[in-house]
Write a sequence for this structure.
């Protein structure tokens, strides 16, 4: 971005993508493809929204659902 930090330059240079845009790469990675198609760091686990909510609850002492 050549040192520029304004919002318009960012929006012009960083495309907005959806889950559906990335689904093929996510599925490849979830099916044990170890190439760095999503991240330069190894991906060791995938969490669903439900699991993220459980983790947040456990961090604030809310316990888990259905436990």
């Amino acid at each position: 971005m050549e040192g520029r930090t304004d919002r318009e330059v960012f929006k012009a240079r960083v495309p907005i993508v959806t889950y559906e845009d990335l689904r093929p790469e996510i599925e490849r990675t979830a099916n044990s493809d170890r190439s760095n198609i999503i991240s330069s760091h190894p991906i060791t686990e995938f969490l669903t929204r439900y699991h993220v909510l459980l983790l947040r609850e456990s961090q604030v002492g809310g316990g888990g659902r259905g436990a």
Notes: The mean pLDDT is 81. The chain has one domain: 7-59. The helical segments are 7-13, 19-30, 49-59. Residues 19-30 form the longest helix (12 residues).
